[in-house]
Write a structure and sequence with these properties.
This protein is about 35% helix and about 20% strand. By secondary structure, the protein is α+β, with helices and mostly antiparallel strands. The protein binds flavin-adenine dinucleotide. The site of flavin-adenine dinucleotide (FAD) has 28 residues, from helix 1 and helix 10.
Length: about 475
Amino acid sequence: MDLPYPHLVSIESPPVIISSSITGLFISISLSKAEIPHVLIGGNAPGGQARLGESVNQTASIDFWKFLGPKYSQFCTTKSHISLMISDLFSMIYLGNPKRKLENIPRLVNSSFFNLATTSLIHVDRVLFDEQVYQDAIGSKFCHLIQSKIELINYSESTDRVNSILLENGEMFSNPRMVFDATGVVSLVAKSANLKKKVLSEVEKVVWTHLNVNSNEIPEDTWWKYGTNLLRLEQATDGLQGISWLIPLKERLSVGVSLANTNENPDEMPKEQVMDLLLRAYDKRGIQISKLYRHELEIRATPHQYYLLERACGANWMLAGNTFISIWYPSSSGLATSMYAALMAPGFVKKEEEIGKNYEDALLPLVDFHWHIDQMIKGGVGSPAALYKFWSIWVSFLPGKLSKHLYWYQYKQLHIKLLKLFSKLINIHYFVQLSLFGFAITAVSKRGAHGTPQKIWPLYFHSKKFLLNNYIKGFAQFLKSKITP
Ligand SMILES: Cc1cc2nc3c(=O)[nH]c(=O)nc-3n(C[C@H](O)[C@H](O)[C@H](O)COP(=O)(O)OP(=O)(O)OC[C@H]3O[C@@H](n4cnc5c(N)ncnc54)[C@H](O)[C@@H]3O)c2cc1C
């Protein structure tokens, strides 16, 4: 076919990205960096609405600094912990120093291999970030944006290829060299190829928004300001059953909940009422967001279910990121899967050997992480001993993920091999994990009289004392709780 755009005229069948969602945009930027002309089929600029996906995990944080670059730091805040509130037990995994400065991160991540995982960690305000990524992607001379939706994908089972893509505007792309499907749960290519979908959860109702704040009103030593905070809501005490997040962004707070379908009439409760109950649940735990923040953006709601597709790639197609796999959100892995797809996209177009296998190998271990989190969400982590075990296993996933990822940034083979070895070692037993990472797991704290966790948490801002305290008191507490459950 004749291409309708001058700078791609020499390419017979350019790669096509379906959807200008964040995954599609990352892939577009990656192809542009590799100077590969491509077509992006998508919509208008994203516009200002609260999005899901603002807590960034270790691998995607590294990508933020190394692949996207420090210019995006204006949308970020540092992420230093993940806390978990279950019944009256507060626990936390310490991931970085809350006093570190965002502007120093680019220097730190480039200075040492060991700094990489902890100092790079961030939250990102996607309202502004997605807009900037969109402008940067379509601004490249290698990207040709066509604003349309897909009407039909023609897939051939015998060749395992996408033969043509018909757009709603009547245009047709025949014999595309490569197709990146970034349509998320819609999974257009997977549907045309009739791929099996493995469901990993029930359908949950997700309700979320952004709240505005005057940052001067929040004291500097407020522990929950510096990390991702998770709260398991109980029907009996909170009027809702589900798992909620609280992610502080620059001058906003991202707050939401995934409601278990065991809730009484989850679909009938208005989203405003859900949000009201949610804010009250935080207030009860001493996190007084309803006093500090006010509503800024519209409250949004959607059904959601986690899943895994039968395979991630075919002869000329890739299910990108969230289109291939979606796992429990507390893993903060959504953007990470998008980045994996983006990093591998140029190799895919050039048909580098093993690239499809590498892509699947990088993403499939997430399923184990999903089931680990699922156990907590279903209520299986309700005692101090169980919480230690939960966090110990959580950290054991990190070195393995990192070792696979650092390959993309040409780190020394020796470093990568050592990480792999370390990953094997710590997976022997959670007691080994606890011995090695006990400094990061905060001793479980009971809720105090005013809802706030007691004693240990103010130490969070004095990292050496805090880490030592976690190790010594944590171990003692763990052993005690094993003996007297
Ligand atoms: C409750 C919850 C919390 C989450 N929290 C986090 C988190 O803290 N950290 C994290 O990293 N991730 C998180 N995620 C995951 C994250 O939100 C997603 O991975 C990410 O936003 C998905 O982006 P995407 O670009 O892959 O897909 P989507 O945002 O789903 O976009 C799909 C796009 O496809 C387009 N499309 C559909 N049909 C067509 C068609 N026919 N033609 C053209 N385009 C089409 C749609 O318009 C849409 O824009 C969370 C997810 C949930 C459910």
